[in-house]
């Protein structure tokens, strides 16, 4: 049962406003709110009218409960929304706006934890129906095998439509993460993504990026416009007021929409835990074969891994904070095999999750540049 | 991230429970250029240990490279994440950062101080509960301090922290602090800010940020972080009347029809009687739903609601309770903040988005703009970028709304340019100028169809647009002669003639041009009401005004005729000698020379006068009218 102070706070009315409305001093109102003095009987109905707080809460000694039309007891007693509930509501609101206003929306599904949360939210947003858009996975062909298996199972369980896109030209040219470094990401991810969006004619694409990931993401709008050719112009972003999104675009423009913009890494994990959202088992610690490669601990996921001279795969208990192409994703040594342990490790760690991604290390402004070129 | 907390290492489950219950506070930093906003946020993140080792190493390296703080850390680099910002040492766009303490979770938006980027500041402010307004102790209250305070107040922020910063540069002087505080309070008394707390600070040195500073023994209040942890803000009102703008109609199969949206106020539960606005139809809630049924839902939650009856309800409608019904109107008094390089002109039409509803709207009157320095009301004909004005707004159809003071989500709107698609303004509704329910059009027995029928014709408007000297009037005259021969009743509105009479009070500024066309459009509409064919021959250089005229008429009764003559050819003809004068600078705002002409993108009829004689052009128009069936009798 919520106390009177909470009810007054939730009414959204300030003590000064209440005082004005009922013709008493602010000091008097403050005494009522703090329970130091009772609200005079002749003012109760006025206070009820102005604040919406039912009379039997204002003076339980004078009025019995069960007023017709009164707000339900359970509603008054329920705790304030938590920040996770607020984030959930915001993300769902964003997805529905896109569904209502886009011509051909698509959800970029990259199989990681953020995608898992995004997909879960999409299922909620349109339940009992299905999300009115397909999923798109840009496959570099170097993803962990377990990721692909997980992806196919998930899509089947949920009864969704998924398009996979592979840059066949890149495959034919033998582009791989060992020999082609930055160009590999360019060709197999960025170029492939652009080609896929153009091929299917998608005008709006959801991505699971968060603002806490990296400093140029922290600057990006929730609805992020891309000029023809998928370029991002960070210097002239549209104003974005309240939760009113202007989705009107000019010829050739597309929009990337980030419903998880305001989530942090901790929020994602906590939500996965609370909602029991399935995630790829690679996030949990297990004994896996690894080698040291490029200053990172890399898992030998298949025979294509180029094992540096003098090394042999070693079985270690490891897990991943983030998932991508296996030769470019650093593992952390860990014993954490439950969600709370993972969260605990994450909170006690002293490095950021992006440290495990080779792509971000190139230069301080690398992510901004990549995004200008069309990277998600 | 709040590694100080013991529970984290001893009892993670308990820690998570505790963390989950934390409330959320959204705040912004704002104020004038270089007052230290970004530095303050960097400092807050750093002092609350939100920076990872790898990020810290990168920050140290960046600071050395940029060299702005000698060998020391430049905290602003933590938030100024764009390459252009780091090069220029300024903030251009909002950065959102996240941190948590044992008591609260915070989302902070660091906004830019430069006037040029004011709209980015408004973007950050629109979702904030608290504003930290920074002041450089050496410079005191500046125009930008006032502008940001005004905007914060306008978007409904009531809690302000006045951070008087760079106290290290004024010897932590209490006199300086008091003088600035006095100045600010003088100004702020004209705003609706309620809770203003002033703190002496040095963002650079870390005074009074997370801990009380020994350098300001005279300061009796809390350090910034403790204040942010405890400040009480207005929460969403769950005892208020229910409001939910419908975003999406969920109809997966024959058996389920639900209305999805984010609850803007109040609460809802199965059994409640709700009203669909603006139509006013009522029904009872049968289910409240997200991924399962819910006993109730409150403001701030996204849900799907299904109703007992098959009532008509679509995206843009608002579900409301029956106790405190939402208002419905098509005319409002509003405040708008203009955010576009192209000035706002009364009369021009824009798209307005309010909740999930998008409608055509135009500013019918700009009552005044606000001088943010003095809060004086200044008369004006237009609003330039970053200016704030009080206006009357007229919508093409009635919408459900609340005053912004009552609810941000049902009372805040944006305006969108119909051609560039940019968001050009943010606005807040004060009140309706009239209630739409009360308007009754005079129902006429002799109506427009009857009048046209009597003349055995169809009424429509032929709107000739093109440069001066393109040949509009010449061609229009021939067309009218042909219509006359065919027994049609018509009339002609010609630019020059109308300017001599009806519109002789108007000049050639952009604002006057808009009003000119608005009046001509209205006159043309009245004439078609009378059953006439109206030939309008006006340069009408702006697309948006022609669009506005088009919308005054029923679909298919407005035909845009583009007399397409290249500028060089029109200037060469120069029948009235006007181009020569314009070139000599004797005529200001001359279309094609010193004022733009926006060619139609998709006119009904386009005539290339370099390849046609005026007679041929007129014949083509008559052909086109015939093909559209517009020259047949009224009944056919
Ligand atoms: N001495 C001193 N210098 C400060 C303090 N706070 C900020 N500065 C310096 O003031 C300059 C501007 O700081 P920023 O944090 O970039 O200012 P800003 O308000 O974010 O600027 P814009 O976002 O571009 O409007 C930098 O050189 C800072 O180091 C302070 O408390 N004391
Ligand atoms: Mg800054």
SSE layout:
The complex is a heterodimer of chains A (376) and B (636).
Chain A: H1 4-10, H2 15-22, H3 26-33, H4 44-51, H5 55-58, H6 73-77, H7 83-101, E1 105-108, H8 113-126, E2 135-138, H9 145-158, E3 162-165, H10 168-172, H11 181-200, E4 204-206, E5 223-226, E6 254-257, H12 265-275, E7 286-293, E8 296-299, E9 314-319, E10 332-333, H13 339-348, H14 366-372
Parallel strand pairs in A: 1-2, 1-4, 2-3, 4-6
Antiparallel strand pairs in A: 5-6, 7-8, 7-9, 9-10
Helix pairs in contact in A: 2-3, 7-8, 8-12, 12-13
Chain B: H1 7-10, H2 12-20, E1 23-31, H3 37-47, H4 53-66, H5 83-88, E2 95-100, E3 104-110, H6 118-125, E4 130-136, H7 143-154, E5 159-165, H8 174-188, E6 195-200, H9 224-230, E7 243-245, E8 248-253, E9 256-262, E10 267-268, E11 273-277, E12 281-289, E13 297-298, E14 302-307, E15 318-321, E16 327-338, E17 349-354, E18 357-370, E19 377-378, E20 388-401, H10 408-411, E21 412-416, E22 423-432, H11 448-454, E23 460-465, H12 472-485, E24 490-494, H13 495-500, H14 510-529, E25 533-537, H15 543-551, E26 558-564, H16 567-573, H17 578-583, E27 605-608, H18 614-627
Parallel strand pairs in B: 1-3, 1-4, 4-5, 5-6, 23-25, 23-26, 24-25, 26-27
Antiparallel strand pairs in B: 2-3, 7-15, 8-9, 9-14, 10-13, 11-12, 11-15, 12-14, 16-20, 16-22, 17-18, 17-21, 18-19, 18-20, 21-22
Helix pairs in contact in B: 12-18, 14-15
The structure holds guanosine-5'-triphosphate and magnesium ion.
Guanosine-5'-triphosphate is lined by residues 33-39, 68-69, 76, 90-91, 112-114, 165-166, 168-169, 202-204 of chain B.
């Amino acid at each position: 049962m919520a106390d009177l102070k909470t009810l007054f706070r939730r009414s959204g009315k300030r003590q000064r406003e209440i005082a004005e409305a009922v013709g008493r001093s602010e000091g008097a109102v403050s005494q009522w709110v703090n329970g130091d003095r009772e609200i005079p009987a002749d003012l109760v109905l006025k206070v009820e009218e102005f604040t919406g707080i039912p009379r039997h809460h204002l003076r339980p000694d004078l009025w019995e409960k069960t007023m017709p039309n009164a707000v339900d007891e359970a509603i008054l007693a329920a705790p304030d929304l938590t920040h996770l509930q607020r984030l959930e509501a915001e993300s769902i609101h964003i997805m529905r706006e896109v569904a209502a206003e886009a011509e051909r929306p698509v959800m970029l599904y990259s199989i990681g934890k953020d995608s898992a949360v995004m997909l879960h939210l999409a299922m909620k947003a349109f339940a009992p129906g299905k999300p009115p858009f397909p999923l798109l996975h840009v496959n570099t062909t170097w993803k962990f095998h377990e990721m692909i298996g997980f992806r196919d199972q998930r899509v089947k369980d949920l009864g969704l439509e998924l398009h996979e896109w592979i840059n066949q030209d890149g495959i034919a040219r033998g582009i791989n993460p060992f020999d082609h470094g930055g160009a590999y990401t360019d060709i197999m991810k960025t170029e492939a993504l652009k080609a896929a969006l153009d091929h299917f004619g998608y005008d709006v694409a959801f991505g699971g990026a968060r603002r806490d990931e990296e400093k140029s993401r922290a600057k990006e709008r929730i609805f992020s416009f891309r000029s023809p050719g998928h370029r991002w112009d960070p210097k002239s972003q549209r104003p974005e007021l309240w939760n009113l999104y202007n989705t009107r675009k000019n010829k050739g423009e597309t929009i990337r929409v980030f419903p998880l913009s305001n989530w942090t890494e901790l929020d994602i994990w906590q939500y996965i835990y609370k909602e029991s959202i399935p995630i790829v088992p690679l996030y949990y610690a297990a004994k896996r074969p690894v080698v040291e490669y490029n200053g990172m601990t890399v898992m030998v996921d298949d025979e294509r891994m180029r094992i540096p001279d003098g090394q042999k795969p070693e079985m270690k208990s490891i897990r991943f904070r983030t998932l991508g192409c296996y030769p470019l994703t650093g593992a952390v040594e860990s014993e954490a095999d439950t969600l709370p342990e993972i969260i605990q490790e994450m909170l006690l760690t002293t490095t950021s999750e992006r440290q495990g991604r080779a792509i971000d290390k190139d230069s301080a402004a690398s992510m901004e540049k990549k995004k200008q070129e069309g990277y998600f | 991230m709040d590694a100080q907390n013991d529970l984290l290492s001893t009892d993670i489950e308990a820690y998570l429970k505790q963390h989950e219950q934390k409330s959320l506070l959204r705040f912004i930093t704002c104020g004038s250029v270089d007052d230290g906003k970004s530095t303050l946020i960097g400092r807050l993140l750093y002092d609350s240990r939100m920076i990872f080792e790898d990020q810290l190493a990168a920050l140290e390296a960046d600071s050395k490279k940029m060299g702005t703080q000698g060998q020391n850390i430049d905290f602003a680099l933590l938030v100024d994440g764009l390459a252009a910002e780091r090069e220029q040492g300024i903030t251009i766009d909002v950065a959102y950062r996240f941190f948590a303490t044992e008591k609260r979770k915070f989302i902070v938006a660091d906004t830019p101080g430069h006037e040029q980027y004011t709209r980015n500041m408004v973007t950050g402010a629109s979702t904030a509960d608290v504003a930290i307004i920074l002041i450089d102790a050496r410079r005191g209250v500046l125009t930008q301090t006032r502008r940001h305070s005004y905007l914060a107040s306008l978007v409904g922020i009531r809690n302000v922290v006045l951070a008087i910063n760079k106290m290290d540069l004024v010897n932590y002087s209490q006199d300086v602090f008091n003088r600035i505080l006095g100045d600010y309070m003088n100004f702020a008394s004209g705003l609706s800010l309620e809770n203003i707390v002033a703190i002496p600070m040095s963002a650079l040195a870390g005074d009074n940020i997370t801990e009380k500073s020994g350098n300001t023994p005279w300061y009796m209040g809390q350090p910034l972080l403790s204040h942010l942890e405890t400040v009480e803000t207005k929460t969403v009102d769950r005892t208020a009347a229910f409001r939910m703008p419908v975003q999406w109609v969920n109809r997966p199969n024959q058996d389920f029809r639900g209305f999805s949206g984010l609850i803007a106020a109040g609460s809802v539960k199965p059994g409640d009687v709700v009203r669909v606005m603006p139509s006013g139809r009522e029904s009872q809630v049968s289910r409240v739903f997200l991924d399962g049924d819910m006993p109730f839902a409150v403001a701030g939650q996204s849900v799907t609601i299904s109703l007992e009856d098959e009532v008509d309800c679509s995206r843009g409608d608002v579900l409301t309770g029956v106790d405190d019904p939402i208002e419905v109107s098509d005319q409002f008094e509003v405040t708008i903040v203009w955010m576009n390089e192209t000035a706002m002109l009364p009369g021009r039409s824009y798209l307005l988005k309010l909740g999930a509803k998008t409608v055509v709207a135009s500013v019918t009157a700009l009552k005044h703009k606000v001088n943010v320095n003095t809060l004086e009301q200044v008369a004006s004909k237009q609003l330039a970028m970053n200016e704030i004005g009080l206006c009357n707004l007229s919508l093409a159809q009635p919408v459900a709304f609340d005053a912004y003071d009552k609810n941000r989500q049902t009372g805040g709107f944006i305006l969108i340019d119909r051609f560039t698609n940019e968001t050009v303004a943010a606005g807040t509704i004060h009140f309706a100028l009239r209630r739409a329910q009360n308007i009754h059009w005079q129902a006429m027995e002799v109506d427009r169809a009857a009048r046209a029928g009597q003349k055995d014709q169809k009424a429509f408007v032929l709107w000739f647009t093109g440069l001066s000297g393109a040949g509009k009037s010449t061609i229009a005259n021939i067309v009218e002669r042909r219509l006359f021969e065919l027994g049609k009743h018509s009339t002609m509105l010609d630019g020059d003639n109308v300017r001599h009479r009806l519109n002789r009070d108007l000049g050639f500024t952009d604002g006057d041009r808009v009003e000119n066309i608005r009046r001509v459009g209205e006159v043309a509409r009245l004439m078609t009401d009378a059953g006439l064919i109206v030939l309008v021959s006006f340069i009408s250089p702006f697309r948006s005004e022609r669009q506005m005229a088009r919308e005054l008429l029923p679909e298919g009764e407005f035909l845009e005729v583009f007399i397409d003559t290249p500028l060089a050819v029109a200037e060469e003809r120069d029948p009235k000698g006007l181009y020569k004068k314009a070139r000599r600078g004797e005529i200001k705002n001359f279309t094609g020379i010193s004022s733009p002409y926006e060619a139609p993108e998709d006119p009904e009829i386009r005539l290339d006068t370099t390849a046609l004689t005026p007679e041929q052009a007129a014949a083509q128009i008559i052909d086109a009218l015939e093909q559209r069936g517009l020259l047949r009798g009224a009944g056919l």
